[in-house]
What we know:
NAD(P)-bd_dom_sf; Rossmann fold; SDR_fam
Amino acid sequence: MEGKVAIVTGAGRGIGREIALMMAAEGASVVANDMGASLDGEGNDNAPASQTVQEIIANGGAAIANFNSVADHDSMRDMVAQAAKEFGTVDIVVNNAGILRDSIFHKMTFEQWDAVIKVHLYGSFNVSRAAAEIFRKQESGAFVHMVSTSGLIGSIGQANYAAAKLGIAGLSRSLAMEMSRFNVRSNCIAPSAFSRMIESVPGATPEEKEANLAKRRQQTRPEQIAPLAVFLASDAARDVSGQILGARGNEFYLYNQTRPIRTLHRADGWTPQTVAQQLPKAWATAFTPLERTRDVFAWEAI
């Protein structure tokens, strides 16, 4: 990270804070962005981002704070310009900022949908689009985006969040392909760290949640995500782009990405009736089951 300039959104708490601190400890100058909102995106508090910056400076690093919302396109262009003015350029973008507005889908309001999509998906676009101009001119740069198993695997009560996070995976893939000619990379991390966002995920009874809280705090900590983010942002990952990686406890994962896995062909073409006769039986064992994240990751993280 020596000599690099990194923008980390959502850097006031949790995973974003730990990434900002570790990047600074490894030599990067950091723009710590966080509007200090509550988990559902309400309110504004400068303290979290300011505290991250103060800790970096106290440890001998260089950092400035930005308190604007990632959902505002013009504000994010201003933030990137602020970073370039303060530190000379921008080398790294970590799209980490997020909110939750959980609801079972048939009860989800437009406002709940819109708010989450704007912060996660629009926010990732807004910061990335502004930084892309600098990356293209200097012919280098790295994007690290936070996605989620809610989108990659599945979750209950989070259709807005899942859609936004899976959209970010598509955005990252496009960035990796389109900007590779400028030596720019883009990757995703699907974290499983105990944080206020993870803690709020629905699907378990209050008793089940309470029984697992202490264990999860010990086994899935935000600082366990930071080393992977720092690696992906560094020149050591020069050959890694367009990938989706996971981090859970002290385990890392590489996720596959959607490709055809079965084919069916009829020389005389298809009718609805022949599709119904052949497709279910031929593909039944290959269908992706309706599993939640906790079904796929059934073992303890250590």
